[in-house]
Design a protein that fits this description.
The chain has 208 residues and is an alpha/beta fold. 39% of the residues lie in helices and 20% in strands. The protein is built from six helices and seven strands; from the N terminus they run βαβααβαβββαβα. The strands form two sheets. A five-stranded parallel β-sheet has the order 2-1-3-6-7, sandwiched between helices. Strands 4-5 form a two-stranded antiparallel sheet. Helix 1 links the parallel strand 1 and strand 2. Helix 1 packs parallel to helix 6 and helix 2 crosses helix 3. The chain is globular and about 55 Å long.
């Protein structure tokens, strides 16, 4: 059975624009794909493993063809378990608000935990990296309250979608759909932008 995993990076619950757009997506997707299992991963539920010194030591040990030991072995087991949970899905929906021009730190933490050799990527000294999450699809809801295309650097820059969509491609997920909600604060036309984002979410959910 095909499995869709919704990864939520917003902590704002009912007040979250990204979660609201994701909910629209999931509602339509469930209606049009009744045979697909839908699962959820709330990155704020406190279960995401840390990636500190033992985990970094374990990663470099694996890179060197060695087995992690001690605290590193436990950290590697936790990272591997998180990856298996992620890898169990065939398709992904990410709800990603912009934080300080980038992504919320919990989403970066997920990326750092699961981006391990032999799991998310392979590496060849001559050819470089190879993404191992091939054959999967992703849709990403990107939201921001101040930044928007064409507003100038005083309104911020986009290291949010540029970072995360690039990571998805690097990991081997080539088919990525983006849904943006970046209301224009100058014209205060947030309602129109919101309607457009939800319409885009419905469109992608039906055809994706």
């Amino acid at each position: 059975m095909t499995r869709l995993l919704h990864v939520a990076a917003s902590p704002r619950g009912a007040a979250s624009e990204s979660l609201a757009i994701a909910s629209t997506f999931l509602e339509v997707y469930a209606e049009t794909h009744p045979d697909v299992e839908i699962a959820h991963r709330d990155l704020w539920d406190g279960t995401l493993p840390a990636f500190g010194p033992p985990a970094a030591e374990a990663k470099m040990a694996v890179f060197a063809g060695q087995q992690p030991s001690g605290e590193g072995a436990a950290a590697w087991a936790a990272a591997t378990a998180e990856f298996r949970r992620f890898d169990a899905a065939d398709r992904y929906l990410f709800s990603v608000p912009m934080w300080n021009a980038g992504v919320p730190y919990v989403l970066k933490q997920l990326v750092d935990v699961i981006s391990q050799p032999g799991l998310v990527f392979g590496f060849d000294p001559e050819r470089g990296y190879t993404g191992l999450l091939q054959g999967k699809k992703a849709a990403v809801v990107y939201t921001s309250a101040v930044y928007g295309p064409g507003r100038g650097p005083a309104f911020g820059r986009d290291f949010q979608s540029t970072f995360f969509t690039d990571w998805l491609h690097w990991a081997g997920i080539e088919e990525v759909e983006e849904i943006h909600f970046r209301p224009n604060l100058v014209t205060d036309d947030a309602a129109t932008a919101r309607d457009a984002a939800h319409a885009r979410a419905r469109e992608v959910a039906k055809t994706w």
